[in-house]
Give the backbone structure.
Amino acid sequence: MDKTRIDEILTPGDRNRDQEREERVRGQFWRTVRRAARQVPFMEDVVAAYYCALDTRTPKRVRGVLLAALAYFVLPTDFIPDFIFGLGFTDDVAVLTAAIAALRSHITPVHRAAAREALSEDS
C-alpha cells in the first residue's frame, strides 16, 4: 500500500466522523483482534493504541488519527478484504504501523499496561 493511500486513510475527520469511527471501533475492535491475532505481530501496540484513542486526555488530533487507523482495521472489506487468508490484514498492518510509529509518544505506559492485561485475559 503506498504512502499516499495511507495518509488518506489516516486523515482525522470532523467531530461527527471521529464519533462514527469511535462507535465502529468500540463495537468491532475485540472481535477483529481475535481474528487478526496471528497475522498482526505487534498486537500489543495495536491494543495500546486502542486505549490511547479512547483516552479523553489524548489530544484530539492524535485520537482522530488513531481512530481512523483502528476504524480501517475493524472494517472487514477494506483495500484487501480481511477474509482473504494470509493477505487480509496486510493493508491493515501498513496503516496501523504508520499511525503507531507517528504517534508512539502519545501511547503511555498506562495504555501499554492496559493492553498487556487485556491480551493476557483474552488468551
Q: What stands out?
A: The chain has one domain: 3-122. Helices lie at 3-9, 15-36, 43-54, 60-74, 90-103, 109-122. DSSP finds six helices and no strands in the chain.
